[in-house]
Amino acid sequence: MQLERCQSRRDQLTKMREQLVEYGQRATSVPRLYLVAKLAGCDVLHFAQYHSMLGAHRVAVSAGQLYPFGSPSAANSARKHGMLPHRTGCFFCPCCVAEQLRDVGASWYMRKHHIEGVDWCPSHKVRLVQNHAKDPFATRPEDWVARQATSLEHLVEPVVVDEFQARYAEIFMQLLVRPSPMEARVLNKLIGDRFGYARATGMTSHKLLSDLVLSMCDSAWATEHFDTFDCKREGLPFGPLDNVVACRSTYVTGTAYALILTSLFANRKDVDAAFEVATLSGKIDSAVIRGERTSDRCESTDSELWLAYIGAGGNHSEVSRQMKCSVASARYRLVRQGLPALNGIARSPARWRALSRFWVGEHLASACLAEAVDQACLERILRVCCTRVERAVRLILFGRRSTRKAKGTTRGQKAAVQNR
Ligand SMILES: [Zn+2]
Fold it and tell me: How far is the CA of 268 from the centre of ligand 1 (A)?
């Protein structure tokens, strides 16, 4: 099929779909990126990972969108970002083009030349040349050079790149080859921990992540390439960067993540190693949150858990020992049922007496005043408590037996009578 003879992009898309239908495949609603991959005879997953800029557009996403680039489930994001370069304009490196012509006899555009903030070729350290043609990606680099009545040698202009920008390009190229996005919760935790470590060890004195980034990069370069960076003022929070540590579930742009990682890590290999560890621990955390750790999963019924909770005085670790499961698994089950840890109940009975007053109808403020406890502390407890906690507190503090346990005893007594 000669796609080059098409009159327009729409014409090209139609021809691509017709060709796919001839191959006996579904063509409607298939993203253009997937169509190109199939027509090129490539595996779509491989093509999306190595020939698109999805890795730059989608560095991190929420847990529900963790699909590999190029998979059928990721079709929506491929439709939106699959054929988009990361920066405006069409660029090429004259040295790369010369190598392509020498080795293959034809030239093409490369994704490493379309990263926002990287105006040079990361391989040859020469300034990128912009193709100003009307439909630049439809014109091969060597054709455009020939039309300009110049030569590739004349376009070579070496540049001196500062250390931060060189590391930024290196880290961004590593983000590009990832097979799928990272979970925002995992990546944000990694960044938060790394920033916290840098502060604790005195590597940085900045309280805000955005201040650290501002202090490390050339502000003129950052302002030129990153939207709204000129709004950043030292000492004031800057949402596009600081949201990463302020909110674990929020994800920011690929450019913001690359800037942050460049500020926190010495090189690409450190980022790689940290990603590997973070992804692994993130998977374990997710499994614990879902209660899926098979070896120490809490298998007890809700009523068994309730009795263990009362018996353990609301101590989650003690419950896990009684149930013979991991603390994380027991805690997950208990918290999901609205049964928080009551470890301090014996040490601070006034707090629980105030809650008892509130549960029998007294106003929260007057209950706190009467028992001389902090109202904010009680409000924090109330936010995570279910109504059964009132009963649990009564049983733990005053030792009254629950009706459920009494029923169980009755059933046991009946069985004993029958056995006689
Ligand atoms: Zn190059």
Answer: 19
Domain count, the chain: 4
Domain span including residue 314: 302-406
Task: Measure Cα distances from 419 to 125, 407, 411, 413 in Å.
Answer: 89, 19, 12, 10
**Phi then psi for 120, rounded to 5 degrees?**
-130, 165
Give the per-residue pLDDT at 260.
93
Q: What is the mean pLDDT of the chain?
A: 79
In the three-class reduction of DSSP (H, G, I as helix; E, B as strand; rest coil), residue 167 is classed as helix
Same domain, 70 and 125: no
The C-alpha atoms of residue 115 and residue 95 are separated, in whole angstroms, by 18
Domain co-membership, 261 together with 241: yes
Q: If you measure from the C-alpha of residue 109 to the centroid of ligand 1, how many angstroms do you get, rounded to a whole number?
A: 11
Question: In this model, does residue 328 exceed pLDDT 90?
Answer: no
- Residue 418, domain member (yes or no): no
| Segment 257-273, tens digit of pLDDT | 999 999 998 888 888 87
- Quote the ligand 1 centre to 122 CA distance (angstroms): 7
- 291: in domain: no
Complex ipTM above 0.90?
A: yes
Between the CA of 375 and the centroid of ligand 1 the distance, in Å, is 64
Pairing of strands 182-183, 129-130: unpaired
State in Å: Cα 123 to ligand 1 middle: 5
Ligand 1 centroid to Cα of residue 170, in Å, is: 14
Distance 82 CA to ligand 1 centre (A): 24
Q: Domain boundary at 81, 112, 145, which?
A: 81
Q: Is residue 292 in some structural domain?
A: no
DSSP element (H, E) containing 61: strand 60-61
Measured in Å, residue 98 CA sits from the centre of ligand 1 at: 9
Residue 217 to residue 206: CA distance in whole angstroms: 14
Cα of 100 vs centre of ligand 1, distance in Å, is 10
Distance 121 CA to ligand 1 centre (A): 5
**Whether residues 75 and 101 fall in one domain:** no
Instruction: Compute, in angstroms, the gap from residue 59 CA to the centroid of ligand 1.
Output: 24
- Residue 406 is predicted with a pLDDT of 40
